[in-house]
Amino acid sequence: MKKLSAISTLFLCILTGCLKDDDTPIIIEEVTIINNDGSNSTTNGVVSITGIISTDTTWSSDTIYQLNQKVVVDNGATLTIQPGTIIKGSEGTGSLASALIIARGSKIIAEGTQDAPIIFTSTSDDIEIGQTSGSNLDENDRGLWGGLLILGNAPCSFSGDVAESQIEGIPADDTFGLYGGADATDNSGILQYVSIRHGGALIGEGNEINGLTLGGVGSGTLIDNVEVVANVDDGVEFFGGTVNVSNVLVWAQGDDGLDIDQAYAGTIDNAVVVLGDISDHALEIDGPEGAANGSFTLINATLIGNTVTNNGEYADFRSSATGTTSNIYAYGFKNTSDIELDNDDVATNYNTGNLVFNDWEIVLPTGVTQVQTLFVNKADNVTVTGFGDEATAVTQGSETVGANTSNLSWTYANVKAALGF
To answer: How many other β-carbons are positioned within 10 Å of the β-carbon of residue 169?
Structure first.
């Protein structure tokens, strides 16, 4: 782990905050490390971090790393995080919201294990070194820090057909927020057995950080066994890119579980979304914003609804979404929940075979007698034929499709929500 001298780092951070309140980055050669006693050694197992990581750095499991404002891995650096490491984000909104950002050209190597997952959580969490969960927070504790953002050079479909764009949540003047490019095989590193909890801090009116944001992330990146719990906004949002994701779980998000935008063209395989009391859609799927096209694949997914409140829908297919959903199992939803085609463009894509539904199995909510009635076309001018014929009504326990939930037995959500994986 790279360190500055105690005196220079402390002086720099006191005067500048390392990242100003308006989010203008103070570029430093190495990340700032401060402890309560002003030294650069670990105090009570906690290291406080603010600023730019511009050289290869390793975070170890015998230390808790506290993110203060935005920590950016930049300049081609690689941040390696050992199994079992705990990272806590500080509370704050707007420019003071904490987040870990992997800029284009840099990497994160976060390889946890089933028994020692890497955990991103809030400083309010009483989890300690060596533990996989604390005792004082639950799925209703949201927005206590920001989130994890990974940005790459893979293709995206942007309005105006520009080559790159600024990720939501990062001011336009901060170039570390750029994503998109022409390298479909771009490699941003590894996320494996990673749990992200209690995030989604407000960064602007109606604008929160997702639990995991993937902007233009390429297929050379490995993302496998990741969960997001209790995030204010979306669980995982894909802004274009080609990265493939396997074994992903989202629980009790405030908005959508899995959100696809800007012609994401990868595969999501073996996914579970468990709605909480204030969750919106399990799936929200958008298409391209520019001329570039890309088709997603979502296969082997289980969607678990919520009947306690008025919130919670199966899925919303919007704009010009193109792609395939196959082997989807859903249960626990209300009789007012539906799967929607939202406009003329997406209804047209369904008619032309560019938006495909295969093998949906749904446990009918109380009061629903035909599975096809859950599939709703809201297009103003385009009719569709057969929407919902791809689905079959089943009883819980008799399903033949959906996620292999045993792969996700390691997750915090499985333990805390008693999901029975």
So the answer is: 23
Question: What separation in angstroms does the CA of 331 have from each of 128, 383, 394?
Answer: 35, 27, 9
* DSSP state letter for 258: E
Separation CA 120–CA 109 (nearest Å): 14
Which of 167, 153, 176, 188 is CA-nearest to residue 72?
176
Distance CA 173, CA 227 (A): 31
Q: Considering the domain boundaries, does residue 1 fall inside one?
A: no
Digitized pLDDT (tens) for each residue of the chain, 421 residues in all: 333 333 333 333 333 333 333 443 333 334 444 443 333 335 568 999 999 999 999 999 999 999 999 999 999 999 999 999 999 999 998 878 899 999 999 999 999 999 999 999 999 999 999 999 999 999 999 999 999 999 999 999 999 999 999 998 787 788 899 999 999 999 999 999 999 999 999 876 667 899 999 999 999 999 999 999 999 999 999 999 999 999 999 999 999 999 999 999 999 999 999 999 999 999 999 999 999 999 999 999 999 999 887 889 999 999 999 999 999 999 999 999 999 999 999 999 999 999 999 999 999 999 999 999 999 999 999 999 999 999 999 999 999 999 999 999 999 999 999 999 9
How many distinct structural domains can be found in the chain? 1
* Cα 354 to Cα 317, 320, 342, distances in angstroms: 12, 10, 15
Residue 225 near residue 413 (C-beta atoms within 8 A): no
Task: Assess if residue 368 is contained within a domain.
Answer: yes
- Of 117, 169, 166, 133, which is closest to residue 148 (Cα–Cα)? 169
- DSSP assignment letter at 334: -
**Euclidean distance between CA atoms 73 and 150, whole angstroms:** 10
Other CB atoms within a 10 A radius of the CB of residue 376 amount to 13
Q: Is residue 150 part of a domain?
A: yes
List, in sequence order, every residue forming a beta bridge with 197; answer none if it has no partner.
229
| Backbone φ, ψ for residue 206 (5° rounding) | 70, 20
357 found inside a domain: yes
With contact defined as beta carbons under 8 Å apart, do 199 and 209 qualify?
yes
- Are residues 304 and 337 in contact, defined by beta-carbon separation less than 8 angstroms? no
Its domain, for residue 113, covers 6-417
Q: pTM of the predicted model, to two decimals?
A: 0.91
